[in-house]
Design brief:
- The structure is a single chain.
- The protein has a six-stranded antiparallel beta sheet with strand order 6-5-15-14-13-12, with helices on both faces. Strands 1-2-3-4 form a four-stranded antiparallel beta sheet, covered by helices on one side. A three-stranded antiparallel beta sheet has the order 7-9-8.
- It has two domains: about 90 residues, no CATH class; about 300 residues, DD-peptidase/beta-lactamase superfamily (Beta-lactamase), CATH 3.40.710.
- The mean pLDDT is about 95.
- A hairpin with a 2-residue loop joins strand 5 and strand 6.
- By secondary structure, the chain is α+β, with helices and mostly antiparallel strands.
- The longest helix has about 45 residues.
- The protein contains 14 helices and 15 strands.
- It holds the Pfam family Beta-lactamase.
Length: about 450
């Protein structure tokens, strides 16, 4: 009898601990699940004009996000997410700026924000030659084996993820020597469809920083102009260290469980300010630590440098429209600052134009948009980055993690660098092969394989 009582007490304690853990996990994870789902459903429905059922199946069909419920309100252009009725999060759509999660600021305050954006020029782009418009050349360069390229693109479009499930590749585009030589879209998508770049947004943010460096308003070697860092140990963090992901801030980039990354993206209204308050974990410049928080601090620095009156329009006027990227939508957080780490939308062709800007060493149509040495600096890894895989918010084809004698992508040249986003959003720039390759989809596929096959198609 006594043994039975002891066993019942142990079981009771274990059940209590399990209950406490469940409540703790739900308290931390449910708002992230509902926030992720609400935000992505809202952008899919109101910005991309897609079928909610397709979004539920493709973008939100994985656990634990699939446990969420998402209610669409077309009257106020919003989506509310919840998990078993708890942890409700609302994302609202505003024309021109996409969707924003309501966090820390009231919905009324967010809706009252004004974004003075520069409108794209009214023109028939199908009558203007690529890359300034969308009219493509009738002929293919002799250096391209069209049969091999078609096969490479077909293989990429049909590829599955590592688990053998559909990867939902939406677009695959190949530019050779400045000309589009291959392009394919999934059913329901075309050259006018805007698609989510995820962390390719970091590369866009770095380019805007580059514009401000060219204008003499920012200096990569100077301490980053973050107000909260004055008279603290963090005031020594330079702009270059933020660009190279060596700031030393205590930030964990983990999406499999609650972390600074998920808290920032789905629980915070001012993402740059949140990250700026995090403590130092390492001495600045000594450790490479990939962080979406660094990118949002950079985005906030852009806002502070330009000023609120001109901020919303600045990336468009100073960069995107100058290189004929007219489809781009940068989505802001609740404070009105663009989410420089994660939320940019554009067509595959516009992402390719961005890749061409870097392929052309920062020039476009005869104008030096970025500093003359910006691309050269972009592809230089920090000394702290032992695998030599990262530059100015761009990834590099550095060392293989398991075999430092090999490149990360062994079948691609050493000079390749690329913008990379969650789920395999990529802009690969390979100067030695005269290639820019864009792949957009939901899940990552074998990137080395499709790079090898596309490169093989270049004679």
């Amino acid at each position: 009898m006594r043994l039975l009582k002891i066993m019942l007490r142990v079981v009771s304690v274990l059940l209590l601990l399990l209950l406490v853990f469940g409540i703790w996990y739900a308290w931390r994870a449910f708002p992230i699940i509902s926030g992720f789902g609400a935000k992505n459903m809202a952008s899919g429905v109101f910005l991309q004009n897609r079928d909610p059922a397709a979004i539920l199946k493709e973008e939100l069909g994985f656990f634990p996000v699939s446990a969420g419920t998402y209610t669409i309100n077309k009257e106020d252009s919003s989506v509310t997410g919840s998990v078993f009725g708890f942890a409700k999060r609302k994302a609202i759509y505003r024309s021109g700026t996409g969707c924003t999660l309501v966090n820390d600021f009231t919905e009324t305050a967010i809706r009252q924000q004004h974004f003075y954006l520069s409108p794209a020029p009214v023109q028939n782009r199908d009558t203007i030659s690529w890359p300034y418009g969308d009219q493509l050349a009738d002929s293919t360069p002799a250096a391209i084996d069209q049969s091999l390229l078609r096969q490479a693109i077909n293989n990429a479009m049909q590829a599955t993820n590592k688990k053998g499930k559909p990867a939902y590749t939406r677009a695959f585009l190949v530019v050779y020597d400045g000309k589009i030589v291959g392009e394919q879209y999934a059913p329901g998508f075309n050259k006018n469809s805007v698609m989510l770049g995820w962390s390719m947004s970091k590369s866009l943010t770095a380019a805007v920083i580059g514009v401000l460096v060219k204008e003499g308003k920012l200096d990569p070697n100077a301490p980053a102009p973050v107000p909260e860092w004055k008279h603290t140990a963090k005031e020594k963090i330079t702009l270059r260290q933020l660009l190279q992901q060596t700031s030393g801030l205590a930030f964990t980039e983990d999406y499999s469980s609650p972390s600074e990354a998920t808290d920032m993206l789905f629980k915070r209204g001012d993402m740059g300010a949140f990250t700026a308050t995090l403590p130092l974990k390492f001495q600045p410049g000594t450790i490479f630590n990939y962080s979406s928080g660094n990118a949002n601090i950079l985005s906030r620095i852009i806002r502070h440098t330009v000023g609120d009156a001109d901020y919303a329009a600045f990336p468009y006027q100073a960069l995107f429209h100058k290189i004929n990227m007219y489809s781009v939508v940068l989505e802001p957080d609740a404070s009105g600052t663009y989410i420089g780490s994660s939320y940019s939308y554009a067509t595959a062709r516009d992402f390719a134009r961005f890749g061409l800007l870097y392929y052309y060493n920062g020039t476009w149509n005869g104008e030096q948009i970025l500093p003359a040495n910006w691309v050269k600096e972009t592809v230089q890894p920090a000394a702290a980055n032992q695998q030599q895989r990262y530059g100015y918010q761009f990834w590099l084809n550095g060392l293989d993690e398991k075999d430092p004698g090999k490149r990360w992508f062994p079948d691609a040249p050493a000079d390749m660098f690329f913008a990379d986003g969650f789920g395999g959003q990529n802009i690969f720039i390979i100067p030695s092969k005269k290639l820019v390759i864009v792949r957009l989809g939901v899940h990552t596929i074998d990137e080395n394989k499709y790079l090898r096959e596309v490169i093989r198609a270049v004679k």
